[in-house]
Amino acid sequence: MPTTNYAPTKTNLLRLRSDLKFAQQGYELLDQKRNILIIELLSLVDQAADYQERVESALARAYRSLEEAVFDMGRLKVQYLIGAVNISTKIDVRYRKVMGVNLPVVDTEYRDRPPYFSPMGTSFWIDSALDSFKQAIELLGKLSELKISILRLANEVKKTIRKVNALEKIAIPNLTEGLRSIESRLEQSERDMLMLMKIVKENLDAKRTAAMEKRHE
Amino acid sequence: MKYAIIGDEDTVLGFGMVGVQGRVARDAEQALRAFQGLLEDREVAIIIITERVAEMIRSTVDKYLFTVSFPLIVEIPDRHGPRPGRPTIKEMVNIAIGVRL
After folding, report:
1. Is A140–B2 a contact, with Cβ atoms under 8 angstroms apart?
2. Is A213 within the bounds of a domain?
3. Residue A65 is part of which domain span?
4. CA distance, residue A26 to nearest chain B CA (Å)
5. Positions in chain A short of pLDDT 50
6. Can you spell out the DSSP letters for chain B?
7. pLDDT digit string (tens) for A143-180?
8. Which CATH class is domain B2-97?
9. CATH code, domain carrying A106
């Protein structure tokens, strides 16, 4: 134990006691924080996995439709058509706090004014691609919110675990050890003191009785 | 605020359809330039990046993903489907905190 060589004084004893109390309180709080963060993390992980699946299937559909559309109509024409589509997405990022961690909340707002182009001479695939991309982009906002939240929470959990371990495995045992050694030293010196007093008293008593006896003679 | 995308031509084309401005990246240099360009635009709140492009500039992406709070970055598969061997979200978390959930 590296930090147990405190001078065995009453002041140090009191100081160590309050330190230990503080460390234990900190440990309890951090332990709670860790548990709360992990619960939050777990609920987000499940949601995120779900969203990821949905985004990926929407995207897979979208890519396939787009490819078909390009086959049907030619790349150039598809590009022109896409230029004509008037959809604008607006997102709003806010933040919420969980145990002091900033987590983003994304709201996707979204304006479109169909019809975008004449159905004559355009491929069916282009409509389906459009639909799937719209779906994907709607889900993406939520997915990015969840993923970023998860990464930040995981980071915070990591930090908290480190702190909890430092308190549990190092700080608290060190303090208890120091406290115990000071206590035993103090007790020891108290006993020594007592013994000393006793000896002094015995000496005094012996002297006094000797004096009394002398006077009686 | 708005989305922006970095990816291959088809992805950018597709997302262009729903009003997302995009930049095409074919190699790491282009990807880095596109990424930095988007970071400067304060209007861009979410950068969508395809996994393949993100892989080219992994260290930069990760730096922003883990430390910087704005903009948000999200990776998506491109038209060839998800990158094989990609860690799932659960695995990512397990690696990050070193505990099995």
Report:
1. no
2. no
3. 10-161
4. 21
5. 1
6. -EEEEEE-HHHHHHHHHTT-EEEE--SHHHHHHHHHHHHH-TTEEEEEEEHHHHHHTHHHHHHHHHH--SSEEEEE-BTTBSPTTPPPHHHHHHHHHSS--
7. 888 888 888 888 888 889 889 999 999 999 999 999 99
8. alpha beta
9. 1.10.287.3240
* Contact residues on chain B for A68, CB-CB shorter than 8 A: none
**pLDDT band for position B45 (50/70/90)?**
confident
Residue A64 domain flag: yes
Residue A109 lies in a domain: yes
Per the structure block, which two tokens stand in for A60?
A: 């897979």
A188 assigned to some structural domain = no
Q: Is B74 on the interface with A (CB under 8 A)?
A: yes
Chain A residues lying within 8 Å of B17, measured CB to CB: 82, 85, 87, 129-130, 133
The ipTM assigned to this model is 0.81
| Interface residue A85 vs chain B (CB under 8 A) | yes
Q: Rounded to two decimals, what is the model's pTM?
A: 0.76
- Looking at the structure of chain A, the number of domains it has is 1
Domain ranges of chain B: 2-97
